[in-house]
Amino acid sequence: MSTLNGKKKLKINQISNIILTEKNIDNISGLLGLLSSLNLINRKKKLNIYVSKGIEKYIILGKKYAKTNFRYCIYLYILQTGLIIKNQDYQIYAFNHKLNFEFLLTAKNKYAQFKLNKAQKFQFPVGPIYGKLKNGCSFLLPDGIIIEGYKFTKYNKQGIKKSILTSKYHTRNTKEISCTSKIIEHKFIV
């Protein structure tokens, strides 16, 4: 993947999930063009599209009137409050806020190289316990000593928590969610 000014460029074929936060022209106007472009480059991978109720009709009608058939599978999911995307590295939660949705993205902690020598000094048996230590699990030994897994890895990276706020009016729920996370987008609707 090439970079520009230290940022990674995203290739169109790498898109696997699309989330449309609102039913307005700003959000949906380029969708059919994007779907057609993916078809032109012979995309084979499935595409997940998360939409609020009503946008699915727009996509179906747009496909019908453009007289196009996509070579790849499109899965439409109607947004609801709760977990919408769960990946091995991150989760995305949606929260219904009147006509809009607010989103919370959480990424898991990354644990790097396991310190095998340190584990052997404690005389831990080789096996699943090593994996648990690498994933940051803590253990209480019979003599009362607490073994903390994060001390058995190098270069642990803290997971992130970011809020995507799409409305200028916020509820208590939105404030509680965003107070422990970074706000990455704050779009005002006029």
Automatic annotation (TrEMBL):
Name of the protein in question: Ribonuclease Z
Keyword terms of this UniProt record: Plastid
SUPFAM superfamilies the UniProt entry points to: Metallo-hydrolase/oxidoreductase
Gene: rnz
Superkingdom per UniProt: Eukaryota
